[in-house]
Model the fold of this input.
Amino acid sequence: MFAELYNKRPIKLNVTPSVVKLPPSIKSTAPAHVTELYHKSSRYLPTLSPSLTCLTLGYEFKRKLEPSQLPPSLTKLSLHNRFDMELQPGVLPSGLIKLDLASFNSMTKQLITPNLLPSSLRSLKLDRLFEQELLPGLLPQSLTKLKMSFNSKQQIQPRSLPQSITSLTIENDFKQEFDIGVLPSSLITLSLKGGYAHEFHPGVLPNHLESLIMRNKFDRPFKVGALPQSLTVLSFEHSWYNQPFGPGVLPARLKTLHFNQGFKQPLLPGHLPSSLQTLYLGEDYKHPLPIGTLPSSLTMLEIGRRFDQALEHGSLPSSLVKLIIGGESDRYLVVGSLPNSLKILTFRQEFNQPIPVGFIPDSLETLIFKGDYSRSFNQSIIPGSLPSSILSLEFNDQFNRLINPGQLPSSLTSLKFGRTFNQELLVDVLPTTLATLIFGDHYNKRIENKVIPQSLTSLTIGSSQKNSIKCPSVTHLNISSFPQLKLVKTAQPIRSLSIQHVSTNVRKEALPSIKHHMTSLTLSAKTPVMASSSIDSRRAKFLKSIIQAFPNVDTYDVDNDDRHKWKVLIRKIDQWHAIMVLKVQIESRSYNKKRFGTTIQYFTLDSAAGLATELEEENKRLKRDNDHLLQLGNEINKLKEENDQIKARLAELGDGGASTKSKVVTDVKSTRRRK
Done:
């Protein structure tokens, strides 16, 4: 790609691609410098580099792995969930640290033997239903992280999990009831994602457990002593847990408690430990919060959308820094109920009530209105309801109300409007402290002189904007398309430019030409549907056109989010050279985790050749001028010498008479004529 981009042989640097994706059609030895390899061919496995540390075998690979075929340097190995070949002892390298066996045992019916897994293994993942009974000695004692799924009849025997394990995740609905001693005493994190149908009796959970994550079907009460005192995180984030908590049930060191939709039990003073810092009350919580219920250690609180209780003065502790609240009810909008410690306030998407004057404390610095549907906040701002302490204000996608002078906080530095806002901005509406202004896609009003304050340095406009915007001090600009560059009238050169919608098929002549220096150019590119084989060529031509149109940029950042995802980062070293990092997404069976193959290249910029020619011509011109000045200097020196000689002769003659003096002068004039 790089040779295509600059039509010359790239200059090599001692930086080589660390991740390579080999196409199925190539039979070869993986390059020696490669440390990570993604391979999906079903027909072969190339001779692997002795420096290889990470290997992923894709969904098409179904070949049997032979002993010594994997290099001893390998530390991470991942097999796709279609891999159904048996693994023999000695196949896995002795230095392997992380192993991902997506379909082991569920497809091959192979059993884990004591010699199969290397003793160096620290992380093991078994995705599909694992049917083998775990017995002591099968898993290596070096293992610290285990993630697996069991079938409905599977049992975990005592001491079968190594005492070295600190993190255990069970993906599916685990039917077995844990007995005392089954979970290793070294366990720090336990995550039961598929649910758990039994009660935890005292002594079942290890004494050093710090994080317990329960999901889906778990809904059993905890008795006093069931949760270890070491616990700091207890989460029912994705479960329908709805059991009461009496005094002493929650450990004294608990810092984070997360309820999900379904929790409806009232919380009373003494139920929550004094150590609690973060509390998420579920969507269905509707009970009052009497004074003393929330501990004085609490710094973050989120209350669900169905909460409809009045908040008394003192219900929320004076330690609270961040609050997320908001439903269809307005009963909690009690003046004086929010503590003066509050810094961040977020109204949920269901909130659509006028904010009374005095409800928001003067300590608030960030105010956010969430929501993207018709019932979200869309109320006129009552003058004085937003205190001057607010520095950042963000409206939701439904807010579309006229704002009058004096309604926005006078100290505001950042203001963001949502998608539908399209009201005319009047003079003196925006405070003189505003530095960042973001408009949504629907905004298309003309902005005249003195509407944008001199303090504004960063501006974002949406795709509908077709009118001019006068903003004298803006240096950071985020626009939707190239033509919008003409709409922004600024007295300062743009130093940072972001463009959201750019086609890689854009014609070179359609690109603007900006020659002044910029620190960064960020583009979100779209590639029209084309064959995969044409992607690289199209990308190369596109990048070359961008660099030619914007030649004086320090950093180019291009992100393509189509089906063939790729990212390019180009950083100039000087006017002649640059480093390019190209990341192309490779296949991954995880929908939540993207994997990218990375190529790094050092190259010479085409634009440097033109600059070098200009500098050479300028150097020649300066040399000619210098030679001419030297010649003039020599002539001046000769005239100076003649003048000195004349003065000397006049001094010798003294006052020898006018006639003699006249004769000398005449002789001098004759001499000059002859010259």
In short: The first strand starts at residue 19 and ends at 22.
